[in-house]
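[job 4417] fold queue: 2 targets
>>> target A
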Amino acid sequence: MVHISILGISDGERSLKLLRTDHFDLYQLHALTDVEEVEEAFGPKGAMESILKAKRDGKVRYIGFSAHSEEAAHAALDRFDFDSILFPLNFPAWIKGKFGPSVYRRAKEAGMGILALKAMARQSWPKKIGESQRRWNKAWYEPFDEIDEAALGLRFTLHLPVTALIPPGHWELSKMALDLAQAGALAPLNENEQKIIRNIARMSNPLFPLLE
């Protein structure tokens, strides 16, 4: 059994061969950024035609998608009964930016698998910090990199709840998340900690803009 997200469809057969399997458990329509991309994916000769054919042929078990905008996510959910969603869910964007609750609520009501991105994201990099000055040069956002604040971010997202969350790509940050999980340090937030994250959120510049 292979669990994998696929960025595209043109190399599907080659990927199956390299992975030595005859099917994918999860085939993902990746990185939908706006409604136009959703319409293109579902249009004539769009990506969904090939994905659905792959499922009919037994090469795909489940179909998911990822998005970084609520508009694109809702547009995709309007068009298909997806099995999973990969979406940014972090407390600064959720609390201050009001970004995430409507998509999360809809996915939960539909019984979808909810895979969370950017649980350790604090905010956009401050303009005064140039690219060469950034501690984490692989991150396009400023992450929570102190263990106490990172734990708050992980705990908030994990206990929304979600099916799973994906830590940042930097090994040091990923290891921090894994160490916290293995130490049993990801319990739900208590009332005082809820106040702490609201204060942190108020002082942040969330990655995603306020909803209109």
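>>> target B
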Amino acid sequence: MSESIPLFKVFLAPPERLMPTLQQMLYGGQISIGPPVGEFEQAFSDLVEIPNPVAVSSGTAALHLSLILAGIEDGEEVITTPLTAEPTNVAIRQAGGRVVWGDVDPRNGNLDPASVAERIGPRTRAIMVVHYGGIPADTVALRRLADENGLKLIEDSAHAIGARVEGKHVGALADYAMYSFQAIKHLTTVDGGMLCCRAPEESRRAKVIRWFGMDRDAARTEVDIRELGFKYNMNNVTATIGLVQLEYIRGVIERHVANGRYFDETLSEIAGLDLCEWQPEAEPSYWFYTVLTDRRDDLARKLGEAGIGASTVHRRNDHHSFFASSAAELPALDSFYARMLHIPCGWWVGDEERDHIVQTIRSGW
């Protein structure tokens, strides 16, 4: 067993597979956006079985594009979760929208559909849901709420590549689904993201917006900018890395899932410890593993002394000054956040490492 077990670790394909392909692309004469980007879009779309992919420079860029496509502007409201990485909600403000906090499902920290329903108002335009830690949120209920109220559903699937709901990959029920390829995600391209759109015409529009508002298929001297665009494109370097990474992603996800299920079984009856629960139709991909305990800090200290990475990872977004105007009472989040702790669950956690984690927790804190 290694001396320590980090909470996160970057997976990169073996150098003998990655480096020759990357070198060939780097010295092939075109490193900006070109054919490798389109190839990566199609390969990723095939993986998640969701059409109309748009590869971009980051998951945050994908979220911003989704909000533009959803028509969010001028203080229109997006109901979202405070339990996420900050870019989820900064993107709402980037688009000009107003953040409305929904409370979480006390079983797993995901956005609670009942709380969302209570907060829908005349200026609500979209619901932004995060599959926190790789546990799928109740998107079946959220899709129903969106349809009943004429809202757009945006799925932030940054933590959850490989997770499924009713046998379909997360993102399949969304109007817009985002995936992140930032360094420590299940699949990394060093940095990058993907937006999958339900409507093909919106995918085409997103590809124009990601390149300054210009259609790259039009003649360069005849192109016409018709709306504000951004420098959000993925490049051939990251796309090439992604294409090689995709050759290994199923094995990476399978190990995350195997470790998560092992923890589900072996940690379930430890006094003072609760585990997350989810809908029966959900299949997590376990980006990290979340345990709940009233003595969270004591357990974190015990794990740290044993060389096991453990953390709350994210600060509640509603505690940032930037979001002060959206302050709300969130009792379920208060309870969940005070008790949650994330432990390693990824591809780097072998049988010996996971047994060490379990035995350390079983020994008490």
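[job 4417] complete. Note on B: The domain at 249-362 is CATH 3.90.1150.10 (Aspartate Aminotransferase, domain 1).
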